[in-house]
Design goal:
The chain is an all-alpha fold and 235 residues long. It contains 12 helices and no strands. 82% of the residues lie in helices and 0% in strands.
Length: 235
């Protein structure tokens, strides 16, 4: 897994993809940050900033993973990977952790924005810390979704668009649940909603159940990606 991880991490910066992702991430975040800090209420402006950034993730993160596996299939290099002395899970997780490293590094750089709040104001540190932590786990889930759909097709654009559709569906569950009167069904749909899972963190609460949800759901999509390649290896 280590060799795949290093290879993939290097590929993000050999090609323009890594730089484009980081530039767009920081530009969009900076724009949202500038707009939200003009609001008068600190808690609402901070929560709004993270909510808008979360929605931006639905578009940005699939772009980071869209070529992870689809490009290997398109260029026929996946055959070399599947016959190399490395497990399928090692290949998938190596690519996943490389994307996660690029994302986490960009998120860390982006979080330097809050130093300005510390200099010019009195930021709510627990609220900010809870939101940044949750953004990391939400991003980890979105990247896992992207890796899975990248394993299904050789077309990187289809991979990205399908990942975005699924991610926005996870957002939409929250709105679907509002119109349902059957209590158990409403609870079930809300359980899958990313927005409902994220809400406690917007209030500065550290919700362990939600973190387990994000990690577990990411694990499911990575497991499915492994199964796709295991089936392809023996096909």
């Amino acid at each position: 897994m280590g060799a795949i991880y290093k290879r993939e991490l290097k590929s993000y910066f050999v090609s323009p993809l890594g730089y484009i992702f980081m530039a767009n991430f920081l530009a969009i975040s900076g724009l949202i940050f500038s707009i939200c800090t003009l609001q008068k209420q600190e808690k609402s402006s901070v929560s709004a900033y993270f909510l808008y950034l979360l929605i931006a993730f639905a578009i940005l993160l699939p772009l980071l993973t869209m070529k992870s596996l689809s490009e290997e299939r398109k260029t026929k290099t996946e055959q070399l990977l599947m016959t190399a002395p490395i497990s399928i899970s090692g290949m998938i997780f190596g690519k996943y952790f490389a994307a996660l490293t690029v994302f986490a590094g960009t998120l860390a750089i982006n979080s330097l924005n809050f130093i300005l709040l510390g200099i010019y104001g009195s930021p709510n540190v627990p609220l900010i810390a809870a939101n940044v932590l949750c953004l990391f786990f939400v991003g980890a889930l979105f990247l896992a979704i992207g890796i899975f759909f990248s394993s299904l097709t050789e077309d990187a654009l289809i991979s990205a668009l399908t990942s975005m559709d699924v991610i926005f569906a996870l957002f939409a569950f929250s709105f679907f649940a509002q119109g349902i009167e059957i209590k158990w069904l409403k609870t079930l749909i809300q359980w899958f909603s990313v927005l409902d899972r994220y809400t406690p963190f917007m209030n500065g609460q550290l919700d362990i159940t939600s973190i387990i949800y994000f990690v577990s759901f990411a694990g499911v999509f990575l497991f499915l990606a492994v199964r796709v390649y295991e089936r392809r290896r023996w096909a």
